[in-house]
Automatic annotation (TrEMBL):
This is Ribonuclease HII. Its cofactor is Mn(2+); Mg(2+). Its EC number is 3.1.26.4. Endonuclease that specifically degrades the RNA of RNA-DNA hybrids. The lineage of its organism: Bacteria, Pseudomonadati, Campylobacterota, Epsilonproteobacteria, Campylobacterales. It comes from Sulfurimonas diazotrophicus. Pfam families: RNase_HII. Coiled coil: none annotated. Keywords: Cytoplasm, Endonuclease, Hydrolase, Manganese, Metal-binding, Nuclease.
Length: 186
């Protein structure tokens, strides 16, 4: 009798920020875990506690792309590479990626809002977000003038003002064009 391939949930954190990495995670849970949800719906304290429980009770792989890689290759190419790497490392599984695009990668399914509805994708969402948030907090020590620990690299008003004052840092995505930073024509 053949056993079904395990479900591997995949999600990312950091697709939209203007600074910092894109982080992707794939998770195959070994046992059900209580409290899983879309990482954005959980407090930082809950995410941190769940991170430890997930990594202790799952096969997982985390992939990271720097702002430089995103600028050089494009966000879609990075997502495609990340999906392929997760699938290669985690092996035979039924892959489910949060969202509605496979980014040209065959052998996986997509589902909008899977990060809230499917425990394996929720777990991947948590691993990706906690990994990225930790890196942004560490980057705040190197670049304190940008406030990365607060906005995690997203284009908040304070972040945009910091860029206007200090210019771009080495971890800003120069390929992401912000209207607020473009010269006016008039």
């Amino acid at each position: 009798m053949e056993t079904a391939a395990p479900l591997c949930g995949i999600d990312e954190a950091g697709r939209g920020p203007i600074a910092g990495p894109l982080v992707m995670a794939g998770v195959i849970l070994h046992a059900p875990l209580e409290g899983l949800n879309d990482s954005k719906k959980l407090t930082e304290k809950k995410r941190e506690a769940l991170y430890a429980r997930i990594t202790a009770n799952a096969a997982y792989h985390i992939v990271r792309f720097s702002s430089q890689q995103i600028d050089d290759d494009g966000i879609s190419a990075c997502l495609s590479k990340g999906l392929k790497e997760i699938m290669k490392v985690l092996g035979e599984a039924d892959y489910l990626f949060d969202g509605n695009s496979t980014f040209g990668v065959s052998g996986l399914r997509t589902q909008v809002k899977a990060d809230a509805d499917v425990p394996e994708v929720s777990a991947a969402s948590i691993l990706a977000k906690v990994t990225r948030d930790r890196e942004m907090v560490a980057l705040a020590d190197t670049y304190p003038q940008y406030g990365f620990e607060k906005h995690k690299g997203y284009g908040s008003a304070a972040h945009i003002e910091a860029i206007k004052t200090h210019g771009y840092s080495a971890v800003h995505r120069r390929s992401f064009r912000l209207k607020a930073l473009q010269p006016t024509l008039f």
